[in-house]
Prior knowledge:
- This protein is mainly alpha-helical.
- Helices cover 64% and strands 5% of the residues.
- The mean pLDDT is 91.
Amino acid sequence: MPQPQEQRERLTRERLTEEIGRVVAEVEQLTGLRSRWNGTVTVLDDRTAALFSPEPYSAKKEWSCSITVVTSVAAEDGRWRTLIHEALHSVSIGLTPQSFLLFPYWEEGVVENLQRLYRPILLKRLGLAVTEAAFTATEAEWRYSAPVDALRRIMAELPATGEQEFMERLLRVPLASRKATVFGWGRGAEDFERFKRVYAEASGHLNG
Ligand SMILES: [Zn+2]
């Protein structure tokens, strides 16, 4: 007979595997990109997670392409934002350890913008009635808010595209080329000098 705690952990892992599977399928459909998620989930208790990471986190996509979720988040409604965020990393083009080291926020900013944009439709498609209140507190103080806003400021200087379309385009540009590609798009800006000033300031929030 498995021990109660062992059994609880197994059930949590099974539930999360099923939930991530559904989220990944929706993200693939929304983005038209294939996920590299390998179908496995690791559940880590909060203390162990803190030992492995210098910064607090609720989940992450490992380089092996499994997804790790911290126990305290696993049962909260707020986990959905995290699962969508990690699913987006798993489809992001050109996400490698090297490119992430050089351009971490060009990845985090794009993924987090899309997480927020896709979430309402995605939860609806999954038939979940989770209120926005489950996410707002976390997002108000979230450590990736600066890159989220920086990308929006750059976007505002470019010929009008919808925010979702802009972020989806970026998700398809290999991570190592995103910074240069966006600068190239700036040549189409109405006021290139102004674009350069905004880009210089905003990309400061996007560098590693
Ligand atoms: Zn992330």
